[in-house]
Amino acid sequence: MIALRWILGLIIVLLGAGFVVLSIVAGGFRRSFGASDRNPLITIAPLAAMVLLLAGLILPSIRPLLHAGAVAAVALIVFCVWQSIAEAATVTWFGVAYLVAWLAFYWFAAWRSGTPA
Length: 117
Description:
This protein has 117 residues and is mostly helical.
């Protein structure tokens, strides 16, 4: 279980750092062509979801945090599947795979007997 936490944690940290860098570069690129900035919510909402999932990995003994992360994971799965159908964005299936793995961690941490590792 500790290996799953490390794998999921490293993936979400790398993905979050890449997302921040991509947001900064893309914002500068848009402004260089005179386009307006995008809504900050487009950058903040995914980062907030990533922080919530990471917090559940770091502190699995806090069950409300795990449950909030599970709700966010299910909402993100619905969003990824919708994006895949609506815009043929097949890359979102990697997000679905990650979120299913996170929900497996959630099940082990929140619903198995004993203390979470």
